Amino acid sequence: AQSVTQLDSHVSVSEGTPVLLRCNYSSSYSPSLFWYVQHPNKGLQLLLKYTSAATLVKGINGFEAEFKKSETSFHLTKPSAHMSDAAEYFCVVSDRGHYMRFGAGTRLTVKP
Amino acid sequence: EAQVTQNPRYLITVTGKKLTVTCSQNMNHEYMSWYRQDPGLGLRQIYYSMNVEVTDKGDVPEGYKVSRKEKRNFPLILESPSPNQTSLYFCASSSSRWTTGSGANVLTFGAGSRLTVL
Questions:
Q1: Interface membership of B74 toward A (CB under 8 Å)
Q2: By CA distance, what is B44's nearest residue in A?
Q3: E strands along B1-118, which residues?
Q4: Do the Cβ atoms of A43 and B110 come within 8 Å?
Q5: Is A32 on the interface with B (CB under 8 A)?
Q6: What secondary structure letter does DSSP report for A85?
Q7: What is the DSSP pairing of strand B10-13 with strand B113-117?
Q8: Which of B97, B101, B102 is the closest to A98 by Cβ?
Q9: Per-residue pLDDT reduced to its tens digit, B15-63
Q10: Do residues A85 and A110 touch, judged by C-beta distance below 8 A?
């Protein structure tokens, strides 16, 4: 059975400093992994997707994530936070089953 | 513009009054799905549909019904809403569930429907 754990419910950073949002997963198969972002009162937008082609995945708005099979992790990073990055972020795992498992979400706050 | 459209966006109703949340996509997608979002729980899948007339339960189907009579539409029906169904609901679609070599396909989400049941 697949599962996903986002290790922080809330992360606060200062503008211009690095962002790290942590995600661990479990899956019986080679999974697809995603990060989605949800800005206040908006739907979900895809940031990036991993499907085994490359372990380091680059997404939109300067975000990237690294797939580490040995650690079953898929952490999201960005070198320099911007005020517009303030949002809720969801890590998602999916295998060949019909489910896409969402993490509980990490709320990112960016301070001026 | 390629999109998933949900209606209504906001609804306040009372216990037991049947309601339907519509979902329509214009991308000719086979796969459609409904999720509910609750604080601290992320999104949980309610029902999904692999194609017309093919639907199945997700993680939290109790109290909900769906139908897929046309490819573009996937309405969510609450026959007798209760307060524990107060939530933010999202409809999503993709071209298919899984593509060999590319894995799970990316979902396109609607803007959400915020439902309050009193």
A1: no
A2: A102
A3: 4-7, 10-13, 19-25, 31-38, 42-51, 54-57, 65-66, 76-78, 87-94, 98-99, 103-104, 108-109, 113-117
A4: yes
A5: yes
A6: G
A7: parallel
A8: B97
A9: 999 999 999 999 999 999 999 999 889 899 999 999 999 999 998 999 9
A10: yes
Count the alpha carbons within 13 Å of B10 in the hemisphere toward its beta carbon: 2
Could you tell me which chain B residue has the CA closest to the CA of A31?
B103
**A18 residue type, one letter:** P
How close A82 gets to chain B, by Cα (Å)? 24
Is the minimum CB–CB distance between A96 and chain B shorter than 8 Å?
Answer: yes
- Does residue B18 belong to the interface with chain A, where contact is any CB pair within 8 Å? no
Spatial CB neighbours of B95, under 8 Å, sequence gap ≥ 6: B27, B28, B29, B30, B31, B105
Strand B10-13, strand A73-78: pairing: unpaired
| CA A89 to chain CA centroid, nearest Å | 6
Residue with tokens 């949980």: B44
Q: How many CB pairs under 8 A join A and B?
A: 58
Taking CA–CA distances from A89, the nearest residue in chain B reads B42
Q: Give me the residue label for tokens 């999974």.
A: A31
Extract the tokens encoding A84: 């517009």
CA distances in angstroms from B24 to A46, A52, B28, B55, listed in the order given: 20, 32, 10, 16
> Per-residue pLDDT tens for A43-58?
899 999 997 778 899 9
**Diameter of chain B measured on Cα atoms:** 47
